[in-house]
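2024-03-11 09:14:02 DEBUG pipeline.ingest accepted 1 chain
2024-03-11 09:14:02 DEBUG pipeline.ingest length=382
2024-03-11 09:14:03 DEBUG pipeline.predict start
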Amino acid sequence: MSRFLIRDPRELFLRPTRRTVLQGAGALAGATALGLGTGASMAQDNVLNILTWPGHGDPAFVKPFEDEYGVKVVAKEYVGGEPMLALMNQSPPGSFDVVLADAEYIGMLQDGGFIDALDPADYPLADYWPEFQKFPLHWVGDELYSVMIRFGYLGLAYRTDMLAPEDVTSYEALWNEKVKGKVGFFDWYLPTMGCLSLYDGNASPFDIDDTAYEKLSETLFSLRPQTSGFYSMADQFAMLTNGTAAVIPGIGDWVVLLLQNEGVPVDAVVPEQGGIQWTESMSIVSSSIKKDLAKKFIQYASSPEGQFRSARLPAYWASIPNKKGWEMMNAEAPEDAVKLRHTFDARNVMDEYKEGKIHIRQTPVQQDIETWNDTWSEFKAM
């Protein structure tokens, strides 16, 4: 018997829609009710399984939790929201206890019945910056479904030996003759197209009508002569390092900070048109049989120590929403607090948010996900 209703699993991996996610979830729930999921029956009591972006299973982050509770955290890694949805949809019930997802996909996970509602009182939201205490993509009405763990801003990442600061005040830098053939792209449609939508003047970059979307497609296609390539998460680090890419839109400090630590001449900027916020959020998977342990893990990840460690993951650094995590960083690693702009006595990472320059990343509102994905695929094939 099939666990899910999608005839070809690649359909969800490549072009998921709300309908296909819900179909898969319905079948998954049915399998759970019938006791058909082998993941739960084979789960080990001393293992917490998480589905996550790369790096969150690193001992630098999880070891204190493992030591305290005598468990092993096992991470299944993915890159991009659509692969995450595919893995949630196609895996046997009980395969994962916690999912770390981009916030724009929490609504789909909730609609599909993949994640549980949370009790806000269980988590230190009062210690978060006020702007993040009731983060809109985490709530459905008065119910909380996810807890913010990390965030960052997306604009332009560039090599400082190829472009000067005055060259990157606008996304217009992408068409600069200095970087012809050296504009790289992280191979995921959402970050780049969101930034280009801001360049087109859309106040809500992911909520645009069809006329604005046609203009966005034209803007994207006009960059093809500038393009050096389309890169995986790992490749974009390498391409900025060796100079194959002089500038990459739709990424930011999460790439640049690690490269700067290695001495690579790079920097990141939120241009005058604004930037996009990415947000990594943790939820308890509905089919988990270790929900209490899953809750404890999210409590740890959102605690001051968990936040301090999460901000400096070896895979990639990020901003954190818990102010007490900021305090710990300033006390124990003040140089890193400066690099992350997590200081209290100078301009910090929250200022751009408060100034209205940052727009929360979402999935498309007036078009389907596959429409944007198809446009991206057409751009790559040109």
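2024-03-11 09:14:41 DEBUG pipeline.report The first strand starts at residue 47 and ends at 52.
2024-03-11 09:14:41 DEBUG pipeline.predict end
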